[in-house]
Design brief:
This protein is an alpha+beta fold. The chain is 31% helix and 24% strand. Among the domains are: 157 residues, Electron Transport, Fmn-binding Protein, Chain A (Pnp Oxidase, Chain A, Roll); 141 residues, NADH Oxidase, CATH 3.40.109. It contains 11 helices and 19 strands.
Length: 428
């Protein structure tokens, strides 16, 4: 009898504890829900007057308000083998295995008949700088004009399908027609992806397309747009906090993309074997030459090294440039004393070339590249090494050597903000 009573007491206590836990959990959930609602309300109240009635919808009827739409340029051949392009916004990935792209066209278009006959097409993805070509390809018909001749673009015969692609576009996709569907105003062509070709200049260290470097053109509301800034990696924006999903506000991490690049810049000393293109190096040099310069003297000279033997020799002789053995390219920023003229004794060339160097480092970060400033000047022995190895004239003084390549990801930015380093002279 005593044993039975003891078991009943234990069971009652267990039930009581369970009830208390459930009540506490419901209270926490209600508090979180209330806090979330309050946060949403506060956020909405900070928006413009047009958004003062949250979640109030207005019916617009049947409209194609899906954003963003792609701005694809479709390449085809007609019966005579003439290359043609047209702009298509009614398009996108429609299957993963086999990877397929759907493109919808009206029967009135020239390309509609080309695809029907040739059983192939290419999808050419433009960068935002190519808006004028995309617009032209969408405004005129291949029945009336030769769009390649008029735009100056270069048609290239597809390697795997009977369709041309546009040489100047950063991404081209060759597709083989597998089926089509007559939907009403449009025929939807389904093309199996046979091959994808991408400009090396827009690939990251993993060999994938860097969307920031591509800067694809998109379409919406009768206008062309750029894609906008990076927010977060897939999967990183969702965290589990106290059992509840929480999406942090990544958009407030930096005020703009320039500040994001500045704060993410780091000295990269570990590189992959991926090559950096000549076009990428020229982009870095243009950024360097955009730096401020005293009296507009522009007292700089840039040496670009791609010779393996020279890179290895500098790595051997310079104490803090051993990472030159990992890269295929380096930039040496020099002061040109002839250009510095009567300002060289004041050291303005050092300031100007330092500003140019910082521009190069920031540009590298913005392009997904890695770089690091390794000093030559003011160390006489290092200046002598670089001068002799590169056989520089006497009027060129090397300020630094910058290895450039694709980072492995081992090097991370440092938070250098120190409030104690700031002296405020405030108005009383």
């Amino acid at each position: 009898m005593q044993k039975s009573k003891l078991l009943n007491i234990i069971l009652a206590v267990a039930v009581l504890v369970l009830v208390i836990q459930l009540v506490n959990k419901n209270e926490r959930t209600e508090r979180r829900s209330a806090a979330t609602a309050a946060a949403i309300k506060d956020t909405l109240l900070t928006k413009t007057d047009a958004a003062m009635s949250p979640f109030k919808k207005k019916s617009l009827g049947v409209r194609s308000e899906v954003y963003p739409k792609p701005a694809f340029v479709i390449g085809t051949y007609d019966k005579s083998g003439k290359a043609n392009i047209m702009t298509a916004a009614w398009a996108g990935i429609c299957n993963s295995d086999p990877l397929s792209i759907a493109v919808s066209m009206r029967p009135a278009t020239y390309s509609y008949h080309n695809v029907t006959e040739s059983k192939a097409f290419t999808v050419n993805i433009p960068s935002s700088e190519m808006a004028r070509y995309v617009d032209y390809a969408g405004r005129f018909s291949g029945k009336d004009v030769d769009k390649f001749v008029e735009t100056g673009l270069t048609p290239v015969k597809g390697e795997y399908v009977n369709a041309p692609y546009v040489k100047e576009f950063p991404i081209v996709i060759e597709c083989e027609l597998t089926t089509y569907h007559d939907l009403g105003s449009h025929r939807q062509f389904i093309g199996k992806v046979i091959d994808v070709k991408v400009d090396e200049a827009i690939l990251n260290a993993e060999g994938r397309v860097d969307v920031n470097l591509l800067n694809p053109l998109i379409y919406g509301g009768g206008n062309y747009f750029e894609t906008g800034k990076y927010i977060a990696k897939t999967g990183e924006s969702l965290h589990d906090i106290d059992g509840m999903p929480f999406v942090p506000d990544y958009s407030r991490k930096y005020a703009n993309e320039i500040l994001e690049v500045i704060h993410n810049r780091k000295s990269v000393r570990h590189f992959t074997e991926q090559l950096v293109s000549k076009e990428q190096i020229e982009t870095l040099l243009k950024a360097g030459m955009a730096a401020p310069t005293a009296a507009n003297r522009q007292p700089w000279k840039f040496y670009v090294i791609t010779e393996r033997e020279t890179l290895d020799l500098l790595a051997e002789k310079l104490p803090y440039a051993k990472m030159l053995t990992q890269v295929q390219t380096a930039i040496v920023v020099c002061g040109d004393m002839d250009k510095a003229g009567n300002l060289k004794e004041l050291g303005y060339w050092v300031q100007d070339c330092s500003a140019a160097t910082q521009n190069i480092l920031l540009a590298a970060e913005s392009m997904g590249l890695g770089a690091v400033w390794t000093a030559a000047y003011p160390y006489e022995d290092r200046v002598e090494v670089v001068t002799k190895v590169l056989e520089m004239p006497e009027n060129h003084v090397p300020l630094n050597v910058i290895p450039v390549g694709y980072p492995t990801g081992e090097d991370l930015p440092k938070d250098k903000w120190r409030p104690e380093n700031v002296v405020w002279k405030e108005k009383v």
